[in-house]
Design goal:
Blueprint lengths: L1 E5 L9 E2 L3 E2 L4 E4 L2 E5 L6 E5 L2 E13 L2 E4 L4 E12 L2 E11 L5 E8 L4 E15 L2 E6 L11 E5 L11 E4 L14 E6 L5 E6 L7 E8 L3 E9 L10 E5 L2 E4 L16 E7 L3 E6 L2 H15 L10 E5 L10 H14 L1 H4 L4 E5 L6 H4 L3 H10 L3 E6 L3 E2 L10 E2 L2 E2 L1 E2 L2 E3 L5 H17 L3 E4 L20 H16 L4 E4 L12 E3 L8 H14 L8 E3 L10 H14 L2 E3 L9 H13 L3 H9 L4 E2 L14 E6 L2 E7 L5 E5 L1 H4 L7 E5 L4 E5 L3 E5 L4 E8 L12 E6 L9 E5 L8 E5 L7 E6 L5 E4 L7 E8 L8 E7 L9 E8 L7 E3 L1 H6 L18 E4 L8 E7 L5 E9 L2 E4 L13 E8 L8 E7 L3 E8 L5 E4 H4 L9 E5 L8 E5 L4 E6 L5 E4 L1 H4 ...
Parallel strand pairs: 24-25, 24-36, 25-26, 26-32, 32-33, 33-34, 34-35
Antiparallel strand pairs: 1-18, 2-9, 3-9, 4-5, 5-6, 6-7, 7-8, 7-13, 9-10, 10-11, 11-12, 12-22, 12-23, 13-19, 14-15, 14-16, 16-17, 17-23, 18-19, 20-21, 27-31, 28-29, 30-31, 37-38, 38-39, 39-44, 40-43, 41-42, 41-44, 45-72, 46-47, 46-77, 47-48, 48-49, 50-51, 51-52, 52-53, 54-55, 55-56, 56-57, ...
C-alpha cells in the first residue's frame, strides 16, 4: 500500500551576486549540499552529505486553467553565481527554459551551508494568471531515512476548530486528515531524529503545500511543494446553509464539496513561493531553522517589554465579566499571587469579548487606572475581519457568488476602506483608553479566497490578509502588544504572539490539546516573540489536572490565567483561589515561566496521528535543564532516558522535582512514577557545574568627531532636541578649545548643529534644564583663548530656545551669576574636566550647580549655586557653617551615600595637599563633612571617583582610581564603608583618570570603564563579588586625559561607549554594543513602579511607591526618577530631566543623578500637581511614568435607576424632549429609523409614565433618516415641531407641525405653506449622528430661526449637502438666507454637526459647523462663524482643529467663565478647545476624553457640582459620561446597559422634574436601546439642585432702534456666577403674544425645551425690530443643569425708530413736577414739539437762547420730544414721566 501525505507550506531581500557563468557538468556544491542538474531536462537531484533527499525535482505551474510541467519546456540554460545575502554566503544556480506558447520559466536554487532555498517565476509578453506554482515536484521514489519509525509531520494552516497538529507513520492508512499539512512539513525518523524539512518562507501571495506519498516504511514516492492549495483546513470549503449564507463545513466529515479555488495571481511576471529544503541530524533543529529563515524574510514584530503574564476574562467569567469581578480578580492576583505578580513579568489583565460591559458601566477608565496603580497593564479585545450580524452587507466577502460565513460570522474584506478604517480606529481607541495589550480574534476570516476584493490589486486570500495585517501593524507596532487568537500561522510578522491552540480550559484533555500543538509547533516562537497556551483554568478540575494545565502553559510561552478570583462565595471559586495560592506561588515555577521560551518535545507522541501529544518536554538555561513529563491517563512509570534528554551518562546531576520539592542525585537513566493526569517538572543541573563564563560586549565601530586637542575637556550626552536620542556635545581642553554640538540622527549618525558657543581651554560642560522649560540647556566653563596674560576663566549659561530649531543663546544674566572655573593652573595638563555637576541638592524641583577648580586670579574654589526658580545664587557657609573645601585639579561627584533621598557631594583635589571630602546632605539646605569615608580615601588630583551601586544592594558605593590607588568602597548601609584595594578588586591604579559606570553586558551588575596613563582604556566587568575582570576596549576608543561615557547612542537600550582624549594621537570616537554579534541578552525597560502615593505635610510632599522589578537588574539596584507638573502654572519639575510621555532620560553618559529608594521628599509649594515616578535600570533604561494627581481629583458619580423604555428601534433618527402640552412635564418625540421610519409623540402623564398620543394623527407621518426639533415659531406659547428627513415614499421632505393649542388638545397639523420654503433636507444612515438641526434667534429679532446641516438631493451648486440658515418671517414663513456669509451661504457640510453658542461674549449666537464638505472638493472641515450683529456672519478658520465626518461637537462653557468652549469628538481625536474670551481657541492636552466614530454628544451638569459634564455616544465609545473635574480634565463614568448605545440619540433632560438631569438614549449596541434612566439622588452623595436666584436690577431702554435689557448677575448654589446663563421673554401687552429666547413658562420659569438649548451668556441682551408699544420684559437665570429661576419682570412703554442724541447744548428732561423741561444753552432758538407715545401732540413752542421752558403737568408714560432749528436740522429724544 502507498500512503499519501500532503505536507502543505510555500520578502523581498537584496542579494550580493558575483559574475555568472554557464556550467557544463551541472553539479554545484556548497558545504554538505549538492545539487545535480540533468542538462537535458533540468531536473534536479538534491543531496545532503551524499544522501539523495529529493529525486528528480522539477517545477510545474498553471496559466489560466492550463497546466505546464517541466517535461514540456525546452531551451534550457543553466548559470551559477556566488552570493552573499541575509541568509548567508553560498551559490545561486539559475535554470531558464521556455514553453511553446512564449512563457519564460526561470528557477533559482540558492545553496547555503545549512539549507537550500528555491523559487521560480514565469514571464510573458501577455498577462498571465496562475493559482498553482510548484517549485518542487518529484515523482521518482527516494529513501533517505532508516527502515522503521519514520513519520510525516502535519502542521495545520490555522488553529480554528480545535484542529490538532499531527505526526503520521509512513505507510499508514490514508485518511483525509492525514493528507493535509500547511506552510511547512517534515519527514523524519523518530529514533534517530534525522529528517527532511520543507516549507515556504514567503507568505505574501500564496497558501502553500507539501505533498508526500510514501510506500513501505521508508520510501517517499512522490514529493511536491506548491503554492495554491485550498481545502477545508484553509477555511475554503463550504456547504450551502440557506439563502445567501454560507457556513464552514469544517470537520463534519463531508469532504465531497470542492473548495473555493485559490485566487489567481496576475501579471506579466508571476513568482512562486520561496521554498526551504533542509536535511538535519535532528528534525527539531530543522524546524527551528525553518522558523529562523522565515524571520529573516519577515522579521518578528518587535516587543521591547517583558514576557507577558496575566489573566484573561474568557477563561471563566466570559460574558459575565464586569467591573466588580474583574477588579477583585486583578486585586487578588496582585495581593495573593505575589510571586506571579511581583517579578519582572508584565502582568496584563485582559478583558476579552464581553469586557465592553465595563464601558457600559462607565467603569473602564477607573478599572484601567486601578490596574496601573497596582503595576498591572490592561488588555483588550478586537475582531477585525468578521461581521456577527445576521445580515451580510457589501463589505462581506463572497465565494462563488455567495457570502462567506463560518464560526457564526461573515468574513469581511480586509482590503475595504471601512475595514481598514475600523482597524485604525479600534487600535487607536485601545491605546487612547490606556490598553497595553490587545487580543485580536477570528483572523482566519481575513485569509479566505473570495470572488473579488475591494483592492483590485489583490487576488488571493493571503494577499488580502496581509493588507489587513499591515494596517494592524502600522498602528500597533511599538505601541500595544498584539496577540492573535484564531489565526493562520503565517504570515507571522505582524503580532508579538499567537495562540498555539485555541480555547483550552483546564481538564487533562485540554492540556493534551495544548501539548499536542506544542509537540509539533514549539518552534513557532522563532517567528513570533512568544507562543500563547491560552487561559489556564483551575476551577472545577482536580489538583493534578491543575498542575498539568499550569505546566503546559509554562512550557508553551506567555502565562495567562483564566479563573474568577473575585470575592465570590461560590465553593468552586473559593477552591480555585486556594489552589492558585498553592500552585502559583512557587518561585521556581514562576522563574521558569519568566526565563524560558517554548520547550522542545523530547520525542514525538508515541501513538502518532493528530490527537496525541508528546509525553516529555525540555528546555535549557545555561547549564540547567528543565524537563516536564506528563501522564494523560492512569498511573504510569516513565523511563527518563539520559541519552534522549541529552544528559551525559555517568555525570552526577542534581534532579529536583519542583512541584513536590524532592531532590536526588542521578548519574544515568531512571524511572519516574507519574500519577493519573498529573505532571512532574524537574530541574536538572550538574552537581559540580562548570564555572559560568563572564559575557563580554562585542563592539562595532560607530563613528567619530573632530579630535584636535581633545584632552582636558568634557564630552557630554543629552537629548537637546527632544527626539528621544542622545546628542553629543564636547568642549576640548587644549589647542584652541575645539567645540561642537552634534545632533543624533535617530541612531544612524550625527549632524553638526551650528552654534555660537565660544571655544574654551581646560574646560568642562554640563547639561541642565535650569528654567524647567523641558529643553536641556548648556553650561560651559573654562579658560578663554586670548593671548596669554589676557586669558580669563569664565562660565557661560546657554539657553536652549526649543523647537523647532533648538538653537542656543547665552543667558547673560545667568552667566553673570556664576563664577568661572577651570581644572587647574596654567601649564597643568592631563586634567579630565569633571568639575561641574548638576543636581537638585535641596529637592525643590530646580536643578542646582556645584563647581570646583581654579578661578581667574589663580585661587581654588568649590562653590554651590542654588537655582532659585531659574536664577543662580551662590550658597556660602553651608558646610558646618563654612564653605566647601576649595581645591584645584580635582573633580566633583554626586550621589546618595547615606540612602536618605538627598544628594550628597564628593570633592577631591589639591589645596596644599591632596584631599578627598564627602559632604552629607543635612536635608535642610546644608551639608556636613563626613570623616567616615574621607579617612579611607587616597586622594589625588587629575583623578575621578564615582558613586555607583557596585553590589546591587541599592546603596551607593564608591570607586576611587588615581595614580596612587584603585579602591572600591562598599557601603555598609550604616554610614561606614569597607575598603577593597586593587589586590582584591582587580582594578588598576592610574593617573589622568576618567571613570564611567553602567551595565555594559546586560547582566544586572554595574561595570566600570576607566581610562588613564597606566591602563589607557579598559572595561572592568563586575564579577558580582566585589571583583572585576579588565578587558581592553577597541583601539579607536582608547585614550586618556579626556572623558569616557557609557550611553545608549543608537536607541537599542544597551550601553555604547564613547571616549575622547589622547591615545595614539587625539581620539574622539564611539563604538556600539553589537547585540547581533554577542550572546548578551537584550535589555528591556524595568517594570513601571506601582502604588504611588502622595502626601503633603510640614511644607513638603512625600512620594512613596512599591519597589519595581526588572528582568536583569536586581530589584534593590533599581533607581527611580520623579516628576511633578504644576497644573496651575504648567511648570514641570524633574529630579533628572526626562520625557514624561516615553520615560526616556534626557541625560546620560555619566552617572545620572537618580533616587535609590522607593520614596522621595519634594520641597515644592502646595498646589495642584500631577506626580509621576519611573524606574531605571543599571543601563539607564527607564520605564514609563506611573502618574497620580494631587490632590486626588474626585467627582461624585451618578447612580442611575432605569425609568422605562419605549417600543421603538431608532437608528439614523432623533429623539427630542419638550413640554408640548404646557403641563410642566417634559414629553418626548421620536423620529427616524434607517429605512422604515418612525414619528411618535409621547406625553408624560401625572404619574411620570409615558403614553403615546396622537397616534392616529395623519400629520405625524413616519419619517426616516431624520432630525426633529421643538420650536415656538409663531410665538403663541405652544411648542411646534420641525422635522427634516425622508417620508414614507423615500423622498426628502420637510415637515412643519403646528401646535393648535389647548383648545384643540394640542393636536398637531401640517403647515405645508411654511414647509414649502425649505430645501429637501435629509440625513445619512448610521453614519450621521451629530446635531443637524438648531432652533435659535440668530438676529435677536424676537422670532426663532432655523439652521440645518444635512444632505439634500444632488444639485451642481450644493453637491449632496447643505448647511442652510432660514430666517423666521414673524411666524409667516421661513426664508433661506443666501447672502449670510461674505455675500453667500455657509460652506455646505454633511456627515457632521452644527452648534451655536456665544464665543465672544457679545450677546449674539455664533455658529460652529464641522464635518465633510464635497464642493469645490471633498475635505474634512470645521468653521466658526462669528455673528456680525447685523444678520450676517464672518467665517473664521480653526487652526489646529482636526474635524472629521461622522462626528459631533459641543459648544458649551466647560470651564465656567461664561464663554463657549468647543469639545470635538471624532474617530481620530477627542479634544477640548478652551475659549480665551476673545473667540480664539486653545487646545487642551490630556483632557481625558475618548475618540470614536458615529458620535453624538450632549452636555449638562449631571452631578450638581456646577460644572458642565459631557455624555458621548458612538462606535468605539458606546455611551460614556465624562465628569468635569473643573480643571479642564474629565473623569470617565458610565450609564446603565439599557442606556448604552451608539449612532442614535442621546439627551440630558430633567424628566421627573426634581431639578437634576436624567439621561435618555435611543440607538443600537448589541441590541436596540430605547430607554431613560433617572439620576437617583437617594442612592448617591450628590446634593439636590436648587434653582438660581432671580436676576435683579432689570433695566430696559430703547437705543438706536434696539431695545436693550440689562440686569445684575444672579447667583446659584452650584453653578459659578460667570457660568450662569439667562433667558428672556417679551410679552406684548396688547395681544399677549410672547417671545421667549428659549421657550419657557413665564409664570414658573420652567424651560419647555431641554438639552443644549441656546441661551444668553451675558447680563445684557439686545432686541432688534421691536415695534413701539407696551410690553412686559422678563429675565431668568439658568444653571448648568437647565434649571431656571423665577423671572424678574418689568413693564415698559417702548418707542422705537427715534434718534437718541439731542443738539449740543440742548437738554430735554422730566422734572419733579411731572413736566418736561426744555433747556437751551445753544447759540440760537430751538423749536420743540412734545408727543405722547401714541402720537398725540401734548405741547409745542420755541425755547430761546439761554432759557428754559416747561410743559404742562403730564401723565405717567413715555413721551417724544422733537427739536429743530430754523435750518430744518432736527433731533428727537425720549423722555419718561414716572
Amino acid at each position: 500500500m502507498r500512503t499519501k501525505f500532503l505536507l502543505t507550506a510555500v520578502c523581498c531581500l537584496s542579494f550580493l551576486c558575483f559574475p555568472t557563468h554557464p556550467v557544463c557538468a551541472a553539479d554545484v556544491t556548497v558545504g554538505k549540499w549538492r545539487i545535480d542538474i540533468n542538462e537535458n531536462n533540468a531536473k534536479v537531484n538534491v543531496y545532503h552529505n551524499n544522501t539523495l533527499v529529493v529525486n528528480e525535482s522539477s517545477c510545474a505551474f498553471k496559466n489560466g486553467d492550463k497546466e505546464y510541467f517541466q517535461d514540456q519546456l525546452s531551451g534550457y540554460a543553466i548559470q551559477t553565481a556566488e552570493i552573499a545575502d541575509p541568509f548567508g554566503t553560498g551559490k545561486r544556480v539559475t535554470v531558464t527554459a521556455n514553453t511553446t506558447d512564449g512563457i519564460t520559466v526561470t528557477q533559482d536554487y540558492y545553496l547555503y551551508n545549512d539549507y537550500i532555498l528555491t523559487e521560480f517565476s514565469i514571464a510573458s509578453d501577455q498577462e498571465l494568471a496562475s493559482n498553482y506554482m510548484a517549485p518542487v515536484r518529484s515523482t521518482t521514489e527516494v529513501s533517505f531515512l532508516p527502515a522503521n519509525k519514520n513519520r510525516a509531520l502535519f502542521v495545520p494552516f490555522d488553529n480554528d476548530g480545535f484542529v490538532r497538529f499531527g505526526s503520521y507513520n509512513f505507510n499508514s492508512e490514508e485518511t483525509a486528515e492525514s493528507s493535509t499539512s500547511y506552510e511547512v512539513g517534515g519527514l523524519y525518523n523518530d529514533d534517530t531524529r534525522q529528517g527532511l524539512i520543507l516549507g515556504s518562507v514567503e507568505h505574501t501571495d500564496w497558501k502553500t503545500g507539501v505533498v508526500a506519498y510514501t510506500r513501505n516504511s521508508n520510501e517517499v514516492t512522490n514529493l511536491e511543494v506548491y503554492g495554491g492549495i485550498t481545502s477545508e483546513f484553509t477555511r475554503d470549503t463550504y456547504y450551502k446553509n440557506s439563502g445567501d449564507k454560507y457556513t464552514d463545513k469544517g470537520f463534519n466529515n463531508n469532504k465531497t464539496n470542492t473548495p473555493t479555488p485559490h485566487g489567481k495571481l496576475r501579471g506579466k511576471i508571476i513568482k512562486s513561493p520561496k521554498v526551504f529544503i533542509g536535511y538535519f541530524a535532528d528534525w527539531r533543529q530543522g524546524m527551528e531553522t525553518f522558523g529562523d529563515v522565515n524571520a529573516i524574510v519577515a522579521p518578528k514584530a518587535v516587543w521591547d517589554g517583558n514576557k507577558p503574564f496575566g489573566w484573561n476574562s474568557w477563561g471563566v467569567l466570559q460574558g459575565d465579566v464586569n467591573y466588580q469581578n474583574a477588579s477583585e480578580t486583578a486585586t487578588f492576583i496582585k495581593n495573593e499571587l505575589k510571586e506571579f505578580s511581583n517579578g519582572a513579568n508584565d502582568v496584563y489583565i485582559g478583558l476579552d469579548a464581553g469586557g465592553g460591559k465595563l464601558d457600559d458601566e462607565g467603569k473602564m477608565e477607573a478599572f484601567i487606572s486601578e490596574c496601573k496603580a497596582r503595576g498591572q497593564k490592561v488588555g483588550g479585545y478586537m475582531n477585525t475581519f468578521v461581521s456577527w450580524g445576521d445580515d451580510p452587507y457589501d463589505v462581506c466577502l463572497k465565494a462563488n457568488g455567495e457570502y462567506i460565513r463560518f464560526d457564526g460570522a461573515y468574513a469581511l474584506d480586509p482590503t475595504h476602506p471601512s475595514v481598514l478604517s475600523g482597524i485604525k480606529n479600534a487600535i487607536e481607541s485601545h491605546i487612547a483608553k490606556g490598553f497595553s495589550y490587545v487580543k485580536i480574534d477570528f483572523m482566519s476570516h481575513g485569509a479566505v479566497e473570495a470572488d473579488s476584493y475591494y483592492d483590485k490589486s489583490v487576488h488571493t486570500g493571503i494577499q488580502a490578509y496581509n493588507k489587513g495585517m499591515q494596517e494592524i501593524y502600522k498602528y500597533a507596532a511599538g505601541r500595544i502588544y498584539v496577540n492573535l487568537s484564531i489565526a493562520p500561522i503565517f504570515p507571522a510578522q505582524y503580532a508579538q504572539s499567537r495562540r498555539i491552540s485555541c480555547d483550552a480550559w483546564g481538564d487533562i484533555n485540554n492540556t493534551k490539546y495544548v501539548l499536542n500543538c506544542l509537540s509539533y509547533g514549539w518552534w513557532l516562537d522563532h517567528v513570533y516573540q512568544y507562543n500563547d497556551a491560552d487561559h489556564v483554568v483551575i476551577k472545577g478540575y482536580s489538583e493534578a489536572e491543575n498542575r498539568s494545565r499550569i505546566t503546559s502553559s509554562i512550557l508553551t510561552g506567555i502565562f495567562i490565567l483564566g479563573d474568577d478570583f473575585s470575592d465570590n462565595s461560590n465553593a468552586a471559586v473559593i477552591t480555585a483561589k486556594a489552589r492558585a495560592k498553592k500552585l502559583l506561588t512557587n518561585p521556581e515555577i514562576i522563574r521558569i515561566a519568566s526565563q524560558c521560551k517554548a520547550f522542545r518535545p523530547v520525542d514525538s507522541a508515541p501513538a502518532g496521528g493528530n490527537q496525541d501529544a508528546a509525553r516529555s518536554f525540555y528546555a535549557t538555561v545555561a547549564d540547567t535543564m528543565y524537563v516536564a513529563t506528563f501522564n494523560y491517563g492512569t498511573m504510569i512509570n516513565r523511563a527518563m532516558d539520559f541519552d534522549r534528554l541529552g544528559l551525559e551518562q555517568g555525570t552526577e546531576y542534581v534532579v529536583r522535582e519542583l512541584w513536590g520539592n524532592k531532590e536526588s542525585i542521578k548519574t544515568g537513566n531512571w524511572t519516574e512514577s507519574i500519577p493519573t493526569r498529573d505532571v512532574k517538572l524537574f530541574k536538572i543541573y550538574p552537581k559540580n557545574p562548570t564555572p559560568q563564563v563572564l559575557k563580554e560586549a562585542v563592539w562595532k565601530s560607530g563613528g567619530s568627531f573632530p579630535a584636535d586637542w581633545v584632552i582636558d575637556g568634557r564630552f557630554i550626552w543629552g537629548d537637546f532636541n527632544n527626539d528621544g536620542y542622545k546628542d553629543a556635545f564636547y568642549i576640548a581642553g587644549q589647542g584652541g578649545g575645539n567645540i561642537g554640538l552634534y545632533m543624533n540622527d535617530g541612531g544612524a549618525g550625527f549632524t553638526l548643529q551650528a552654534t555660537t558657543l565660544p571655544a574654551l581651554n581646560w574646560a568642562s560642560a554640563a547639561a541642565i534644564d535650569y528654567d524647567n522649560d523641558g529643553n536641556l540647556d548648556l553650561i560651559i566653563s573654562g579658560r578663554t583663548n586670548e593671548v596669554s596674560g589676557n586669558r580669563k576663566i569664565v562660565t557661560h549659561v546657554y539657553r536652549n530656545n526649543g523647537a523647532p530649531e533648538y538653537t542656543f543663546s547665552e543667558d547673560t544674566e545667568r552667566s553673570a551669576e556664576l563664577m568661572g572655573v577651570t581644572s587647574g593652573n596654567a601649564g597643568d595638563n592631563d586634567r579630565p574636566g569633571r568639575f561641574l555637576q548638576v543636581f537638585d541638592y535641596n529637592n525643590d524641583g530646580w536643578q542646582d550647580l556645584i563647581l570646583t577648580g581654579v578661578t581667574t586670579d589663580g585661587s581654588s574654589v568649590t562653590a554651590l549655586f542654588r537655582n532659585n526658580q531659574g536664577k543662580f545664587e551662590r550658597m556660602p557657609n553651608v558646610v558646618d557653617g563654612n564653605d566647601f573645601r576649595a581645591v584645584s585639579g580635582g573633580s566633583v561627584h554626586v550621589g546618595d551615600a547615606n540612602h536618605d533621598g538627598y544628594a550628597d557631594v564628593f570633592v577631591q583635589g589639591w589645596n596644599g595637599d591632596f584631599y578627598a571630602d564627602l559632604y552629607l546632605n543635612q536635608k535642610n539646605g546644608t551639608f556636613s563633612r563626613s570623616e567616615a569615608l574621607s579617612q579611607l580615601f587616597t586622594a589625588s588630583q587629575a583623578a575621578e571617583t564615582v558613586f555607583a551601586d557596585i553590589n546591587g544592594d541599592g546603596y551607593d558605593d564608591f570607586v576611587e582610581i588615581n595614580s596612587n590607588a584603585a579602591n572600591l568602597f562598599i557601603n555598609n548601609q550604616d554610614n561606614t564603608f569597607t575598603k577593597y584595594d586593587e589586590t582584591v578588586t582587580g582594578l588598576t591604579k592610574s593617573g589622568a583618570t576618567s571613570i564611567t559606570a553602567g551595565d555594559v553586558n546586560n547582566d544586572g551588575r554595574t561595570d566600570l570603564v576607566v581610562s588613564g596613563f597606566n591602563i589607557m582604556t579598559k572595561i572592568y566587568y563586575n564579577n558580582g563579588n566585589n571583583t572585576f575582570k579588565g578587558v581592553d576596549v577597541p583601539k579607536e576608543v582608547t585614550a586618556r586625559s579626556g572623558n569616557l561615557n557609557l550611553v545608549d547612542i543608537n536607541g537599542d537600550r544597551t550601553l555604547d561607549l564613547s571616549n575622547f582624549g589622547y591615545g595614539d594621537g587625539f581620539t574622539s570616537a564611539y563604538v556600539l554594543n553589537d547585540l547581533s554579534q554577542n550572546t548578551l541578552p537584550a535589555n528591556i525597560a524595568p517594570r513601571v513602579p506601582a502604588g504611588l502615593t502622595v502626601t503633603y505635610t510640614d511644607g513638603k510632599f512625600t512620594l512613596a511607591w512599591e519597589p519595581a522589578a526588572d528582568a536583569i537588574t536586581p530589584s534593590n539596584a533599581i533607581r527611580y526618577n520623579v516628576y511633578a507638573k504644576d497644573e496651575n502654572s504648567g511648570i514641570v519639575y524633574f529630579y533628572s530631566p526626562a520625557d514624561f510621555t516615553t520615560g526616556k532620560l534626557k541625560t546620560g553618559g555619566a552617572i545620572t543623578t537618580l533616587i535609590n529608594q522607593n520614596s522621595f521628599e519634594w520641597n515644592l509649594p502646595d498646589g495642584k500637581y500631577t506626580f509621576g515616578v519611573q524606574s531605571v535600570d543599571q543601563a539607564d533604561v527607564a520605564s514609563e511614568f506611573l502618574t497620580v494627581k494631587y490632590p486626588a481629583l474626585k467627582v461624585e458619580e451618578v447612580v442611575w435607576t432605569v425609568g422605562g423604555t419605549f417600543p421603538h428601534y431608532l437608528e439614523s433618527g432623533d429623539a427630542i424632549w419638550g413640554d408640548f402640552n404646557n403641563d410642566g412635564r417634559v414629553d418626548m418625540l421620536i423620529t427616524g429609523g434607517r429605512d422604515s421610519g418612525t414619528l411618535a409623540l409621547y406625553e408624560q402623564t401625572q404619574d411620570g409614565k409615558f403614553k403615546r398620543v396622537q397616534s392616529d394623527n395623519a400629520a405625524l407621518a413616519a419619517m426616516s433618516r431624520s432630525k426633529a426639533i421643538f420650536i415656538d415659531y409663531d410665538n403663541d406659547n405652544d411648542l411646534d415641531i420641525v422635522v427634516m428627513g425622508k417620508g414614507s415614499s423615500g423622498t426628502s421632505l420637510p415637515l412643519i407641525l403646528e401646535n393648535t393649542g389647548a383648545e384643540n388638545q394640542y393636536a398637531y397639523v401640517k403647515n405645508t405653506t411654511l414647509a414649502a420654503g425649505f430645501l429637501k433636507h435629509y440625513f445619512l444612515k448610521d453614519e450621521h449622528s451629530g446635531r443637524g438641526l438648531i432652533a435659535f434667534d440668530y438676529d435677536n429679532d424676537g422670532w426663532t430661526d432655523l439652521l440645518v446641516s444635512s444632505d439634500v438631493p444632488y444639485n451642481k451648486a450644493t453637491g449632496t449637502s447643505a448647511t442652510t440658515l432660514y430666517k423666521n418671517m414673524e411666524g409667516k414663513g421661513f426664508v433661506r438666507q443666501t447672502t449670510v456669509v461674505d455675500g453667500g451661504e455657509f460652506r455646505h457640510i454633511t456627515q457632521g454637526s452644527v452648534h451655536v453658542g456665544d464665543v465672544n461674549g457679545d450677546g449674539y449666537l455664533d455658529i460652529y459647523n464641522q464635518g465633510r464638505a464635497f464642493l469645490p472638493s471633498a475635505e474634512d472641515v470645521g468653521y466658526l462663524y462669528i455673528n456680525n450683529q447685523d444678520g450676517t456672519f464672518k467665517q473664521v478658520a480653526m487652526d489646529g482643529f482636526v474635524p472629521k465626518p461622522f462626528s459631533d461637537a459641543a459648544l458649551v462653557d466647560v470651564n465656567g467663565d461664561g464663554y463657549s468652549d468647543i469639545v470635538e469628538v471624532n474617530e481620530t481625536s477627542a479634544t477640548l478647545y478652551l475659549n480665551d474670551k476673545s473667540g480664539n481657541f486653545i487646545k487642551v492636552k490630556g483632557a481625558g476624553l475618548i475618540n470614536g466614530k458615529c458620535v453624538q454628544s450632549t452636555a449638562g451638569d449631571i452631578n450638581n457640582d456646577g460644572f458642565m459634564d459631557l455624555i458621548v455616544t458612538g462606535e468605539g465609545i458606546v455611551t460614556r459620561v465624562f465628569y468635569n473635574y473643573g480643571d479642564n480634565t474629565f473623569a470617565l463614568g458610565g450609564v446603565p446597559s439599557e442606556i448604552t448605545e451608539r449612532c442614535g440619540a442621546i439627551n440630558l433632560v430633567d424628566i421627573n422634574g426634581d431639578g437634576t438631569l436624567d439621561v435618555a438614549s435611543f440607538g443600537w449596541q448589541n441590541d436596540w436601546k430605547n430607554a431613560y434612566a433617572f439620576n437617583d439622588l437617594s442612592k448617591s452623595h450628590i446634593q439636590a439642585n436648587a434653582a438660581p436666584a432671580a436676576p435683579t436690577n432689570l433695566k430696559v431702554e430703547s437705543v438706536d432702534g434696539k431695545v436693550i435689557l440689562t440686569w445684575s448677575k444672579a447667583t446659584d448654589d452650584h453653578t459659578p456666577q460667570e457660568a450662569l446663563r439667562y433667558n428672556v421673554y417679551v410679552k406684548n401687552n396688547a395681544d399677549n403674544t410672547v417671545y421667549a429666547y428659549a421657550p419657557t413658562d413665564v409664570q414658573t420659569g420652567v424651560l419647555k425645551v431641554r438639552n443644549l438649548i441656546p441661551l444668553i451668556q451675558t447680563n445684557r441682551f439686545e432686541l432688534n425690530g421691536l415695534a413701539s408699544g407696551k410690553y412686559t420684559f422678563g429675565v431668568q437665570a439658568v444653571d448648568q443643569a437647565d434649571l431656571g429661576s423665577q423671572f424678574a419682570s418689568i413693564s415698559e412703554d417702548i418707542i422705537t425708530g427715534i434718534h437718541s442724541i439731542a443738539f449740543d447744548g440742548v437738554e430735554a428732561y422730566a422734572n419733579a413736577q411731572r413736566q418736561i423741561t426744555i433747556k437751551n444753552n445753544g447759540q440760537e432758538p430751538v423749536e420743540y414739539t412734545i408727543l405722547s407715545a401714541n402720537g398725540l401732540m401734548m405741547s409745542a413752542g420755541v425755547c430761546a437762547t439761554a432759557a428754559q421752558q416747561s410743559s404742562a403737568v403730564l401723565e405717567q408714560g413715555v413721551y417724544i420730544v422733537r427739536l429743530s432749528y430754523g435750518n430744518n436740522e432736527a433731533s428727537t429724544v425720549k423722555v419718561t414721566i414716572h
